[in-house]
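Is sulfopyruvate placement plausible here? Inputs below.
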Amino acid sequence: HQSDGHSAPIARGTAAPEGIAGLTGLDGLRAWVAGIADLTQPESIVWCDGTPGEEDRLTKLLVAEGKLIRLNPEWRPNSFLARTDPGDVARVEDRTFICSLDEQDAGPTNNWREPEAMRAELRDVFAGSMRGRTMYVVPFSMGPVGGPISQVGVELTDSAYVAVSMVKMTRVTSAVLDLIDAGQPWVPTVHSVGAPLIDDAGVRHDDVSWPCNETKYIVQFPETREVWSYGSGYGGNAILAKKAFALRIASAMARDEGWLAEHMLLIKVTSPEGRAFHFAAAFPSACGKTNLAMLRPTIPGWTVETIGDDIAWLRQGPDGRLRAINPEAGFFGVAPGTGELTNKTAVETLWGNTIFTNVALRDDGDVWWEGLTEEPPAHLIDWEGNDWTPASGRPAAHPNSRFTVSAAQCPSIADDWDAFDGVPIDAILFGGRRATNVPLVAQARDWKHGVFIGATVSSEKTAAAEGTVGELRRDPFAMLPFCGYNMADYWGHWLEVGEQLGENAPAVFQVNWFRKGDDGRFLWPGFGENSRVIEWIARRVEGTADAVSTPIGCLPQAEQLDLDGLDLAEADVAELFEVDRDSWLAECDLTEEYFEQFGTRVPAALRAELASLRYQLRA
Ligand code: GTP
Ligand code: SPV
Ligand code: MN
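Reply from A.M.:
I modeled the complex. C-alpha cells:
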C-alpha cells in the first residue's frame, strides 16, 4: 500500500483536485489553498486560528446573516440555534464515495468510483462553487497537538457554521501551522456547500439561511489521503475532521501503519477500591455512545468518567499495551432522548457555549427537544421554523437534531482525557440496537472470537443516516459507513493487531441495552443502570467475577450481575440472557450470507469462528 501521499509533485495553481502530492511545508499549504481558490473562486480567504475572539466574530456574522439564532443568554449564554434545509439533516451514505485506485480495495460495502473520473466530476462541481463567499482555512489537530497518536489536517470551507463547528470539535490552532512548517504530513480536506452567491452571468443573488445543494458528494481518496465534500452543510458530511478524516481516511492510514481508527467512545471506570480501567466501545450511530460515555453509575462506589463519545484512535504503546486517544475535542451529540433522567451529564454540559442544530425553539428563547423534559412546553417553534403545540402530532425537534459543544465543558471529563500518549485499554465493547437474540452482556472467549462478534454486529436502522428507521442492518464494528477500505481486509487487520498485541490484547465484550419483550417494551432500564454491566466487565478484567460458558460467549453467572434495587421481573431477567439456539442458528445462516459478498477476502479465522459457533449451537 502507498502510505505516503506527499511524494509525487504537481504543478502549482492548477486548480485541479489532484491532492497535495509534493506540497509539504507552509509553502505547500499556501500553494494548495491558492489552487483551491483558483478553482472555487471565493470572494475572500480567511485563515482561522481557533481563538475565542474569532469564534465570537464568526457567530456574530452568522447571526447577522440569519444563519444562527442567538438563544436567550439568560438561559443559554453564548449559544445558538441553526435550522438546516429540510433536505440536509443527516449523513448521505448513498453519496459517500471511496475512490481507491482498485475497486476491490473499497470493497462491496462502499460506493466506489474510479479516482480520475471522480476528480473530473469534482473539478466540474467545485468550479466557481464558492463565488461570492468567504473561504475559511481551518488548520486542525486530531488529538493533542504533536502527540504520538495525533494527526493534523486542514479544512477549506465556504461555511462559517462549519468553521465554528470545527473549532468546537477539533483543536484549531496556529500551532498546527508550525507542525506543517516543520514538514509533518497533513490531510487536505475541501468543503463547499455548493451554493455560489454569484452566478455564471456574474449576477449576485441573496443568500439563504442554510445554503446547500441537492447534489451531494462526500468523497474520500484513501491513497492520497484527501477528502472532498460538496452540497451539504450537515455534521459528518461537512465537519470533515470527523467521519471523513478521523474514520475513513484514518482507517486507511491505520491499516498501512498498524494501528486502529474506530467509531468508539472511551471511558475511564474506577472501582470502589480505586482501581482505574479504560474501556472503548463501538456502537452504531445513534445507539448510545454519548450516553455510555457520560454514564452516571447507579451502583455505589463506582465512577465513570468521559474521554471520548464517538471516535477513538488506538495504537500499541512502547509498553506493549493498546493505548487510545479521543482525536476530537468536542461532542456532536444526538439531542432527542437527552434529559435529566437519561443523560444529566450531557444536559449539564450544554449550559452554554453550544450550537444546537434542528432542535425546537422555546418562546423564552431557549431550546427544547423530545426527551429533554417529560412534558413538552405548550408552544414551540419546531425545527423547520413552524408553530408547534403538543397537539401537532409531529416531533418538534428533528430525530437527528444535535448539539455541538467542547469536551472540556463536560463535568465528567476525565483528568486523562487528553493524555499525550493516550490511555491503556482494558476492554473493548461491541453493541447494537437489537430487539431480539443478543443478550445484555457476553464476553468473547478470546480476541479472534471478539473480532467475529465485532464483524457480525447488526442494528436496527436509526435517524443518523438517511433511510428507513427500524430495519435491521449489519454494521460491522459500527464502521459500515466509515471504513475507508475493504471491510473484510479491515477484519483481517483487526486479527493482525491482535496477534501483535498477544497477551496484552484487551478483553472483548458484546452488550445490548435494547432487547425487547414480546410486548415491545425494553427489558432493561438502560442509561445509568448500564453501570451494573460495566461493573461486571471490570470484574471480569480484574479476574474476580465468574461466568457461564455458552456457544455465543461467557455470560454472567447468576448473582454475579448486581441487580439490587432494580424492579425487574424474573422472567424479564431470564429473557435478557436467553440464548435461543434456533434463532442463533438462523442468525448464523444470515452471517454466512453476509460474508458471501466479501468472497475469499473474509479471513479464514472468521469462517472458523462461524463454523465453531454453529457446531456448539447444534451440540
Ligand atoms: P452518534 O452520535 O450518532 O454516533 O450516536 P451515539 O452512539 O452517541 O448515540 P447516543 O448516545 O446519542 O444515543 C442515541 C439514542 O439512544 C438517544 O435517543 C438515547 O436516549 C438512546 N439511548 C442511549 N442509551 C440508551 C440505553 O441504555 N437504553 C435505551 N433504551 N436508549 C438509550
Ligand atoms: C454518526 O452518525 O455516527 C454521528 C453523527 O456521530 S455525524 O457526525 O453526522 O456522522
Ligand atoms: Mn457517530
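Short version: Confidence is low (pLDDT under 50) at residues 1-17.
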